[in-house]
Amino acid sequence: MPLWVRLSALGLALGMTLFSGLSTLQLTNSLSADKDREGQSLLNAAELNAARIDARIGLARAGLEAAQGRLALKSGDPLSAAEAGLKLAHGNLKSLAIVKSDKTGVVALAGSDDTDLLRKVAGDASDRYTLRTASSRLVTPARPYIVVKGTGGAPDLVGRLDPDLLKGLSGDRLTVLVTREGEIVAASNSQMIGQTVSAALSVKPEQLRARADSRDLIQGARPEGGFIKIASAELSDGLIVLAAASSAQFFSPTASLIRGAAFIGGPLLIGLLFGALLIYQARRSRKDTLQFQASEQRYRLAVEAARCGIWDWDLEQDLIYMSDVTGVMFGWGGGGVATTDEVLARVAAEHRTDVIKALETARLKGSFDVSFRVPSTTGRPLWIDVRGQAVGDR
Questions:
Q1: What pLDDT, on a 0 to 100 scale, did the predictor assign at position 267?
Q2: According to DSSP H, which parts of 28-114 are helical?
Q3: Residues with Cβ < 8 Å from 45, sequence gap 6 or more?
């Protein structure tokens, strides 16, 4: 079998082994909720809370858009528009402000809030609809805001979300609301509001979205120490709701790296060694073949230099393979292949019976020894003394 075929088969076998093994080996920070009762409970809580929070934020946004619509109809009474929008938010907003498009001042404010903070939030918002936090030296912890940008020079609408947005949703779990960019805008632990989820829980927003899609858990860590398992659910506008609880460590990056390196490196090392052995074997076999061919060539040259012929008589196929010297002895111009009858036709008639008997003896006993005369066109007959040994089954 060619070397490349054996190496290809080895590579395919290694690839299949690695693929089947990696499919069962935990190399990423992930835990199937189906294999963890508490994890399944966390996932159910995250998905249920996501639906409830989506409804509450939807009411808050509806209040802002209602105020924006009323302001467009009655631009001369911005306070009434702000108060109407705050009422339509059904308690999900604590304040609603109308901020000038150039962010130089607050046109109207329903509820109580820090006007400098409102202008800062409006100035930092870049999208048509933004959810973000803001704080100042006098306002801590950070407060969550929703901003609806005005168009065509119209004022912006800024509403402060109710700090109890997650009230009744947490129980004894940690519940967190995270923006698409990874900022925490609401949490059952208010000290976390305004932090990034990477700093607060040691996970990235793209990891949370991936786990929300796969409905798996992810391990996080608190800055003060300790691990937590986190279930996530994504809202329609990119927000992510987390439900988390304290947990024993189920993922270690270092251990995972070592396991992965050992699992992948072991078969690869074996494969490389086996491949090297195949290459060595192929080279050794080629070297032996070349040495054998060279030895056979030297033997043939030595024999023919002594005017001795070489032949191979295949009794089963009734063929005789002759060297150049042997072919010349029988009257042919050189070596080749002839049938038994063709060779016997070159033997003198009185010696043909002796040759046939010698062949039968060789077939039964293995030894071939006969002398016969070959007529020559020059009139000088040639005597040939033939020796041989039969091989194979007799």
A1: 67
A2: 37-73, 78-88
A3: 169, 171, 173, 175, 231, 243
CA–CA gap between residue 49 and residue 241 (Å, rounded):
7
Instruction: Of 154, 160, 152, give the one whose Cα is nearest residue 68.
Output: 154
Tell me whether the CATH fold assigned to 30-250 matches the one assigned to 308-389: yes
Query: What global pTM score does this model have?
Result: 0.60
> Domain locations in the chain?
1-28+269-306, 30-250, 308-389
What's the CATH fold of domain 30-250?
Beta-Lactamase (3.30.450)
Token digits for 165?
A: 């947005």
The Cβ of residue 157 has, within 10 Å, a number of other Cβ atoms equal to 26
Helix (H) or strand (E) holding 144: strand 143-148
Q: Within its chain, how far is the Cα of 24 from the centroid?
A: 13
Burial class of residue 373 (count of CB atoms within 10 Å of its CB; 0-12, 13-18, 19+): middle
Tell me what pLDDT residue 25 has: 44
- CA trace torsion 133, 139, 140, 145 (10° rounding): -20
What is the CB neighbour count within 10 angstroms for residue 333?
Answer: 8
| DSSP-assigned letters across all residues of 361-381 | HHHHHSEEEEEEEE--TTS--
**CATH class name, domain 308-389:** alpha beta
Kindly list the averaged pLDDT for each block of 10 residues, start to end, along the chain of length 394. 62 64 53 83 93 94 95 94 96 96 94 94 91 88 93 93 82 90 92 94 94 92 91 92 90 61 66 76 82 76 73 87 88 88 92 91 87 83 88 69
